[in-house]
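@channel sequence for tomorrow's demo:
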Amino acid sequence: MSSIEIRAVRTPREKRIFLTFPWRIYRDDPLWVPPLLPERAKVIDPQRGSFFKRGEAEFFVAWRGGEPVGTICAAEDPPTNANRDKQECVFGFFEYVEDYEVANALFQRVINWAKDRGLNALFGPFNLDYEDSFGVLLEGRDRPPALLCGHSPPYYQHFMDRFGFQPARGDNLAFDIDPSAPGLPRLTRLAEKLRTRGRITVRGADLSQFDAEVDRVHYLLNAGLAGLPDHIGWHRDSVEATLSQFRSIADPELVLFAEVDGEAVGWLAGIPNLNEAMGYDVPGTISNFGGTCVANRSAYA
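structure tokens (generated this afternoon):
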């Protein structure tokens, strides 16, 4: 078998190979939803990606016999490490053929990258954003992924276990509800009672005040999720970058804010499921997602 070589992405051709490599893994998977290449290219661009305002990253391709067989990203996020008292190397964009030696070679390259920077553990996979495609899929391969949720073949989990990774965050869950579910009418009546009391108001988003709305979402995300074990606070730049992806397609009347005395206390975004248009056909339910994924941490020092 030809030896495996891990090379950093340097040329435009290597960048294209890095960005399009997932097609080699998922082209026969009917539930896979291809990423939008312009958005994917923006994320890894040091001049445009929000991550690079606070950290550094390097991208690698695994080669064997002149063919690409895997990709990975290694990144350092100093502010987040300082806030959490960690010395972690974030890894992501981790895709590879079903060959443990390929996965191991990619891991070893990232470990060396991390050690050169005084980091002592791997944390991921994340695609630079801690909420973008994190972890590996554990359950739900009979359903398509939700927006921003990861999707991976079964052998990814087996290889992560074999390498010694342990769960580092709670499962990322996606739910499906039928409009005829028996509990919904009761929930609607309860919501109407709360409205009549007048203390809580619900309004749609004001996209003409986009920056102010991003500030509200940023606050609500961090305040609402702060109690979760090992919670990583959202950076405002990441919130803005995530929301900006959907600004042109969002219906402001479905991006809702709950307010008490003029202060935002809750937020719910209903956006079109672009995955349906891009990747698959699904029945007409409110949401058609399933599965769990989990981020992993592995100390190697």
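heads up for whoever presents: The chain has two domains: 4-175+291-299, 183-275.
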